[in-house]
Write a structure and sequence with these properties.
By secondary structure, the protein is of the alpha/beta class. 37% of the residues lie in helices and 12% in strands. Helix 10 crosses helix 13. It is globular. The two termini are 13 Å apart.
């Protein structure tokens, strides 16, 4: 039975099909693993009642009987939806997010909701109101964020896949820290209906798994147009596993982002691992060239401003009037607003709301918000021009391995710069995947990104899968789990 913990979706599907194990037994197996191991890493805020999980799924379809998890900002009908915040404590979702609805229709078993940085604001899962999530590779270190709970659970073999959300890198960075696959689709490919908004123009539901093929299985079920989401793209449902082969598409051109690889402060072990991965791609027949993305230096600043501006707007709805926490002792409406938001939101969320309101305020909007929008357009244009010469890009996912808890308590800027290599893709709305490409001498995972143009998911997954078949990084698992 222990072989099930790190089995792929394909392997689990085969066992279910051959009746080696039933969906109920498989669910029992993972529930028991949660009881044993999750007290160590605190990846999940709640594992649902077994009967409710089974009854909510169709138990028919491509993912029939396959358990998975969802980040606690993705709506699951009848279950708590707190965004790891006190302000939404005990709030229950009244509908399924479109992604959840589609997964249930495909037979998947949504077995729990994962810990996260409060309202997806953070890069370490240290801002959750419900405790830290720990990295299963080294429990003194963070799993990344904001989707750290989802990443840690998959890495520890508590579920074969999980959903997260990626606003500036919050799927890819924790995937890299935890040694698994993290995928952010093109903006609009996966419906945002039922995803609690942080930055509406940047947010995208993403996928965690241990292999590229598993990611393709999940993406095939959740992608496609949704009339309930005005930003949803008119894209038909397709099978993203169909083109996965051991080799690369003939003549594929891959650009290595030189100013990312050579960026100041890059950990030498990460650079070495990525250069080795580049050599692997050359051996697979890829045409490798070195390219520059000058706007990369401005992306983090633009993301900082735009994400906080949108957060200030989106989080204004949490005021104690309509739902969630309310200060019932307040004597005035103003005091009720103030006390509810002060007591309900954590420090990081309050800080981002303040900054967001500042950059949107009269006298500052032109200097900050409008200039950031100009930079965003430049970033988009630069990617479009770059992809005229190459098919995909390789760049780091993170500048350093998973760091210790509290490492950036004094220097908050360094925490914000965790998004340095990932937020450009959110600003441009293009897809990217982080895949394992090595380990440090301290046995900490290293990830790298493959980035493609608008709606290039199939090509990105092909290239990532081909690399995966030539390496063994995805087969390694943390000891003790």
């Amino acid at each position: 039975m222990n072989s099930l913990a790190f089995a792929t979706i394909s392997e689990l599907r085969a066992k279910l099909h051959d009746k080696v194990i039933s969906p109920s037994q498989l669910l029992d197996f993972f529930i028991e693993r949660f009881k044993k191991f999750d007290p160590i890493i605190n990846s999940t805020l709640e594992v649902f009642n077994k009967d409710s999980v089974l009854s909510a799924s169709s138990l028919h379809g491509p993912l029939a009987g396959i358990p998975g998890l969802a980040k606690d900002n993705i709506s699951i009908n009848g279950q708590n939806l707190t965004c790891a915040s006190k302000i939404l404590q005990n709030f229950k979702a009244i509908h399924d997010a479109t992604a959840i609805e589609r997964l249930k229709s495909a037979g998947a078993l949504l077995m729990g909701r994962t810990n996260m940085d409060e309202f997806a604001m953070g890069s370490s899962t240290e801002t959750s109101a419900y405790g830290l999530t720990k990295n299963p590779w080294d429990t003194s270190r963070v799993p990344g964020g904001s989707s750290g709970g989802s990443a840690a659970a998959v890495a520890a073999g508590l579920a074969p896949w999980a959903l997260g959300s990626d606003t500036g890198g919050s799927v890819r960075q924790p995937a890299a820290f935890c040694g698994i696959v993290g995928f952010k689709p093109t903006y609009g490919l996966v419906s945002r209906y039922g995803l609690v908004a942080y930055g509406s123009s940047l947010d995208q539901i993403g996928i965690f798994s241990r292999t590229v093929q598993d990611t393709a299985f999940v993406l095939s079920e959740i992608a496609g147009q949704d009339i309930r989401d005005s930003s949803s793209l008119a894209v038909e449902k397709k099978d993203y596993t169909a083109l996965l082969k051991d080799n690369l598409p003939a003549g594929i051109r891959i650009g290595v982002v030189r100013n990312a690889i050579e960026a100041e402060g890059m950990d030498p072990e990460i650079v070495s691992a990525i250069e080795e991965a580049i050599s692997t791609y050359e051996s697979l027949g890829a045409q490798i060239s070195r390219v520059e993305l000058p706007t990369l230096d401005y992306a983090a600043a633009a993301y900082f401003i735009l994400s906080r501006a949108e957060a200030a707007s989106n989080l204004s709805r949490f005021d104690g009037v309509r739902y969630g926490l309310r200060d019932k002792e307040a004597q005035t409406l103003s005091d009720m607003y103030f006390n509810t938001r002060h007591d309900g939101f954590g420090d990081e969320v309050r800080s981002r709301i303040l900054v967001g309101n500042y950059v949107l305020s009269t006298g500052h909007a032109d200097a900050f918000y409008q200039n950031a929008k100009v930079v965003q357009r430049l970033i988009r244009r630069e990617f479009v021009e770059t992809f005229k010469d190459v098919d995909l890009l390789i760049m780091p996912t993170h500048p350093m391995p998973a760091f210790k808890f509290g490492a950036f308590d004094v220097d908050k800027l360094q925490m914000d710069l965790q998004d340095y290599f990932t937020c450009s893709m959110n600003l441009a709305g293009i897809p990217a995947i982080s895949i394992p490409c090595g380990f440090t001498k301290n046995n900490l995972p290293i990830g790298m990104q493959l980035v493609g143009p608008h709606l290039s998911e199939s090509l990105i997954l092909q290239a990532a899968h081909a690399y995966e078949q030539k390496t063994e990084w995805h087969m390694k698992h943390p000891e003790g789990f």
